[in-house]
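Researcher: Before we compare anything, I want clean individual predictions. No alignment, no superposition, just each chain on its own. First chain goes here; please echo the sequence and then give the structure tokens.
Model: Echoing the first chain and its structure:
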Amino acid sequence: MPSLMHSVSSFSQQQLLLLHLHVSSETFKHQCIATLQIPNPHISCLAAHNNLLYAASINAINVFDLSDYSHIDTFSNDSASGSVKSIAFDSTKIFTAHQDCKIRVWQMSPSKQHQLVSTLPTITDRLLHSVSPKNYVTVRRHKKRLWLEHWDAVSDLVVKEGFMYSVSWDKSFKIWNATSYKCLESVNKAHEDAVNAIAVSDNGVVYTGSSDGSIRVWERVDKERKHSLVTTLEKHKSTVNALALNDDGSLLFSGGCDRSIVVWERGKNDHHVVFVEALWGHTGAVLCLIYVDDLLVSGSADRTVRIWQRGKENYYGCMAILEGHEKPVKSLVGFSRSNGVVSICSGSLSGEIKVWDIRNNKNLNKRLISNGVL
């Protein structure tokens, strides 16, 4: 194999392809360093906070110490709450989204045991709002519910700048005060079908992905303090399962049942979000996406995890495929370690969590991109 810094123009197309594959393996070393197994049959979601890994399965949440992967706690609500769909954090509390339409708030004690703090909407808020007929909205024919409560499974949560954002299969998204637990706003008909995913940028732009195949972009009108629809993004041919943003919020990634990952870019000086490219490679539905340390990571029903990175001409390429799961990969979480190592935890429907170490040689990558190799 010629030197990696050799002029690209001297290679044939076939040699360049072989060089790209060789470079990918040289710049992205990966290995599975641990496998965790929980007793319940599948992982519904993963999340990490303060060096702890939270893994939900049915209504139970298992907690592992990421320093040594030891199991430190299991906490749950009663079985009637159904599957845990999402986990989010603020500085001191854990928020969980449930199939029974509720959001629950937990706090960890000094002994690392987790106790239930509240259930949203709170009983007090429900009683206060139940008095006035104007607080009810029609959710189905001849059926009304309070505007501040979800009436189907809560599918995803994001906590950002003191606010919690929730989406639901009831086609809505809601915004909550993460301290007082009060529901501040509800967009009751955000989509034509179930809302499966939400992403929120640092400047407060909200993105929602739905089973209707669309992604909708929402911004707050300052005078009214309410979110309004800015645009609808339509490139997926079926259900949108997952959304992720890059660090500065300029790129949005969406994964769907059509097996594609779509890359969108937001203009710097306007509200336009434009299609950039579609990433293909997964042979099953894309079920989860995360963005960590300049890497896009995707998990799929094809039982693999793929690592993508932006390269030549700002297009993304698949740099590594992580294999070993026996069932679909349902959830991902990632974080940076020292010396250029990124750790990825992938949870599958077999109840298995794999921990991967990805060594990304960024300096070599930059030189290769500048030479047109990547």
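Researcher: Okay. Second chain, same rules.
Model: Second chain and its structure:
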Amino acid sequence: MADETVTWRDRAFPDAGVPLAEVGAQGWHLLNGDFHLPVAALRETAIERNLALMRDYCRRHDVLIAPHAKTTMSPALVERQLSDGAWGVTVANVQQARVFIAAGVRRILIANPVVGRADLTALAAWRRTDPELQVLLLVDSVETVAVLADRARAAHDDLGPQRVMIELGYAGGRGGVRSTGEAVRVAQAVHDVGSLELVGIEGFEGLVSGADVAERRRRAAEFLEWSASVLHDLLDRGLLPAHGSLASFGGSSYFDLVVAEFRERWSGGRIEVMLRSGCYVTHDHGLYARTSPFVGHEPAPLPALEVWAEVLSCPEPGRAVLGAGRRDVSTDADLPLPFAVRRDGRTQPVEGLQVTGVNDQHTMVSVPDHVSLAVGDLVGLGVSHPCTTFDKWRLIPIVTDTYEVTDAVRTYF
């Protein structure tokens, strides 16, 4: 990949002009004055543990995983996922696919319909350049099939049929067919055109609504149960391959329900189950700390991604202002979660600090009487939903548990 030198554009990093491959040899420490603040960081021990947890889980349950790379948009982290046995990667659009094709990934699921002329022309050009490249697309209506078939035929009628999956959805959700009858009509439409090939079904259960985790898990299980019935119907009608059809579901919260529905009830190689969890690689301090199926297991997943900021002001008793904001850390699922304070070269865990508000560049913190916080102290902020922290940083250092910098990974948002 390009951008192999650390430059002034890589915020927080020393302006050293060193090759990216030599970051770990600089002797830098994240929190001892080498880096500008705020700074995001990834803990190596947590990444290693989380990768191993998902690798072993998939092997134990005989399922594939194509992690959703939009979480990190980091070829370096995706390469580690592939080295641990991932089938390929999931992306949201052709622009994201472009990043990972350039990085050498050869199996990609685009978890959306693709109908744009420029997108399909680009996919055809990449397939023509590399016959080993496999790209799966989604369809969720007869109209989508017609548009995709027409444009796919025009773009790559010499490359063989484009492989597609039917996207299933639920009321109030995103894309996806809403009934078995609609799924059958879409499958028949794919069957009737020569430029597409139906290979499976796909859906995303991670955004089901509910008052609490228990209710959301119940509704996710209901959606997956219906999805399995659709798969059974399409197989019985001969609209899917009799063996090896794909069933792809599974965000980072309910993938155990996917395994229970599709792997524990289907055997004999008739289907392949493909999870798409992306956030497992870093876990988090909030959303997935509450919902990941790995929570409560031993070993438990560890939050790998964190952001550190300085205390800029203590303008009144019980209130501190940090030099980080929504330009630096996720706020879409929960506000940042303070977990540690560093003073005079010592890092201590802390309880009781609470973020009460976040501006573009500032975070307001409520400070209880039992916590000492002063101007110049550093505060470690845990994140909830790592996707929207990753997209704020071009280059993220990897650190040991004592914050020595050993490497860095680029993102390509």
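Researcher: What stands out in the second chain?
Model: The radius of gyration is 23 Å. Additionally, The first helix runs from residue 44 to 61.
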